[in-house]
Amino acid sequence: MDGNSPRAFDCDVLVAGGGPGGSTVSTLLVQRGWRVTLLEKVRHPRFHIGESLLPANMPIFEEIGAMAKLEALGRQKLGADFPRDDGSSCIFRFDRALGDTPPCAYHVKRAEMDRMLFEHAREQGVDAREQVKVERVEFDAGGVTAHIDADGTKSTLRARYLVDASGRDTLLGKQLKLIDRNDKHQSAAMFAHYKNVAFNAGDPGGNIISINRFAHGWAWFIPLPDGTMSVGCVCKPGYLKTRQGADNETFMARTLAIVPGAAQHMTTAERVSPVRFTGNYSYACRQMAGPRWILVGDASAFLDPVFSSGVYLSMYSARRALDVIDGALREPRLEAALQRHYTRHLRRGYRRFAWFIYRFNSPAMKALFANPHNLMQVEQGVISMLAGDVFDNRRVLSKLRIFKAVYAATSLGHAHRWLADRLDRRRQNRMHVAAD
Fold first, then answer.
1. Which is nearest to 21 in space by CA: 282, 265, 259, 311?
2. Nearest to 41 by CA among 152, 156, 163, 172
3. CATH number of 11-51+109-181+283-357: 3.50.50.60, 3.30.460.10, 2.60.40.10, 3.40.30.10?
4. Is the separation of the CB atoms in 148 and 157 below 8 Å?
5. What confidence category does residue 435 fall into, taking pLDDT thresholds of 50, 70 and 90?
6. Largest Cα–Cα separation, the chain
7. pTM of the model
8. What are the two backbone dihedrals, phi and then psi, of residue 92, each rounded to the nearest 5 degrees?
């Protein structure tokens, strides 16, 4: 081989990022017979939020052969609760979803689950390495060369294909300048683990996630397998400016004090972890795939975590990426068409989650979730969305279209009431001035 020829491939597929998406696509690829190298920049276990899974994710755990391991480390999740203003519960149980969606999911400690998936990939034959960071990549006509740092030792690794599963580090999104941030939907999260947190009255076994709205965002209460509770608040930027030098713990306590329904959980609670902050700025990459590369999970887009969609979208996109990579490596002329289908399919699902997310705190959505009606199985369609069934089920999608129409009508009614109330307040002010 002359000096101008590219060196032989170290692997068929290089996967950057050892979270759920990266471990899943790596496992699936070795099951198809490809040589895969999976690189994770830190060492497992490492802390991560996203502790509540969705039922639609369960078949993927089955496919990669990790379902029994998930059951061993998880706490069963039977539904989601969106408490009303009066403190009563409105629980959406997954066993009422339409179609074949599994009736439950699991709450997990992400550090444990991510380590399990990474080690499972290694057991399946993946060359899985920790504390190895992909710093940048170079593409040529034959493949991709990754410049890597293994705990201070620099080197390169050559592959036929690259999967960017780097999460919110967005390796290729930054390198190729693909990121579009959503300036209209910005938020930040603060969260911690607590013990001695009370479950909902309607959930004595601690198998339901609670999502509590408040004036400045929303809060989550996730029962974890070890008996602790993950508690977090996702807040609007304007509210965060009121922090005014308060430390993390004080600001967290101050925020929980204004969350309706939080007191019934937190009266005897004791914090057992630091309070952490993270920016949850929504973004999407303009391109999800290109010649010899593809993005999965948060590397391609990040949504507000209100419906616990993060791990599911990571693993689902990894499953869909499998067919793109496998097809492109076997028949390169099909790559562009496979990538176009991948992009269209995923964007449709992301948009369906996003439609609900961006309206979650609106008066109309709040009213509809507080008083659900199952006319024409619309409530069951919403439950299917909450379970993660947003891609292919035509029956579910038809119910979601009906729900959107109901939402539009409800929003109009709220707008009329808001306008009438505003006019009435102005009339009363004029009367008060006249009386003076």
1. 311
2. 152
3. 3.50.50.60
4. yes
5. very low
6. 97
7. 0.92
8. -100, 110
